[in-house]
Amino acid sequence: MDNLKELLEKWYATEEQWNDWRWQISNRITNVDKLSQFVHLTPKEKDGIAACLKKFRMAITPYYASLIKSEDRQCPIRMQAVPNPKELVCTRGDMRDPLHEDVDSPVPGLTHRYPDRVLLLVTDCCSMYCRHCTRRRIAGQNDRSLPKAQLDRAFSYIRSNPTIRDVVISGGDPFTLADEQLEYILKKLRAIKHVEVIRFGTRTPVVLPQRITPELCNMLEKYHPVWINTHFNHPREITPASSAAVARLAKAGIPVNNQSVLLKGINDRAHIMKKLVQGLLKIRIRPYYLYQCDLSEGIGHFRTSVSTGIEIMENLRGHTSGLAVPTYVIDAPGGGGKIPIGPNYLLSQGQGKTVLRNFEGKVYLYTEPDAEEGKNTTSNLGIAGLMQSNDVILNTEEKMIIAKGS
Ligand code: SF4
């Protein structure tokens, strides 16, 4: 860090303390008075933040606070970390649990929506409370991890459901747990034969990179395949410290993917998103999803139109490496799951021909096998089957077979 000396003086910290994740957590900014020492606030802003804190938590690690430009109200780091009284306003469509994570929960802490994977919420604690958090109904409410008895119930559920092959450990932020607690969870999951893949959802590399210690990485690599999905939203979050944290994970053989949220005033312009995804590839993170901002309560001021997201995707696809292009999704309200959306490149289709446009708007014709040739090579199920039959509706049994992946 270029300004490390200045930072250490400001925080009355030694370099060793600054690099210690436990020091970072115990010195988080959690009230207005402390915040005003590091971020310029008018009296009106202070009152607005205080009002907000009656409903939602604030916690900003010294590291993440050091990325805020103190005088800039539109600073993308500040907007993600500092409460805004707009959070107290309910917008049209707002819901407490838009993704129905609580409804689809067979045992506390576990969401089972998709057939082969579950979401395990192991804590409600985060090192930094993001202002746009989808799970703000739980994040930071009690600041505690899932009690062991409930964890064990979740393991029993996973054990008795052999279709579950993928477990996503999230929260809150699971990396706020100690290594020993994480290892307990990993050991239990690895003892279940049908659990093939373990994934973590964590914002730690972005907001508390000091937590990605060599000891944590050594422990994680014992339980491979372990994947990490993280959450960078702006190119300014890619720093020497966050890059080094990701490098430590890569060294331990852990693939890191990124899930950004499209946020008004933060990353809703194509050039910013392009800089972000290209920067992520440079530090070996694969841009995975770009989420349309969910309908959680009090985050309406962060939402953009869907057409804004489509426009951004239009400016990525073909304009930069496909590896850098995330899938833009709406996580359907009511627990419908992620639905990919984006620009339409298929212009027309019929009589063995498909008309497409490329990223420059040029139009091309692709010749398909004719009906007879195609019959022997494509499945006669699903949409392909419907195209070849005289039916006018896809029968639901076939639809179920396709959904089950047979
Ligand atoms: S780290 Fe994740 S769970 Fe925690 S506040 Fe941020 S978005 Fe929400």
TrEMBL record:
EC number: 5.4.3.2
UniProt KW keywords: 4Fe-4S, Iron, Iron-sulfur, Isomerase, Metal-binding, Pyridoxal phosphate, S-adenosyl-L-methionine
Cross-referenced Pfam families: LAM_C, Radical_SAM
Cofactor: [4Fe-4S] cluster; pyridoxal 5'-phosphate
Broad EC category: isomerase
Radical SAM core domain mapped to chain residues: 112-323
Species annotation: Desulforamulus reducens (strain ATCC BAA-1160 / DSM 100696 / MI-1) (Desulfotomaculum reducens)
Family: Belongs to the radical SAM superfamily. KamA family.
Reactions this protein catalyses: L-lysine = (3S)-3,6-diaminohexanoate
Gene Ontology MF term list: 4 iron, 4 sulfur cluster binding; L-lysine 2,3-aminomutase activity; metal ion binding
NCBIfam families given in the database record: KamA family radical SAM protein, lys_2_3_AblA
UniProt name for this protein: L-lysine 2,3-aminomutase
Residues carrying N6-(pyridoxal phosphate)lysine: 338
Signal peptide, first to last residue: none
Residues reported to bind [4Fe-4S] cluster: 126, 130, 133
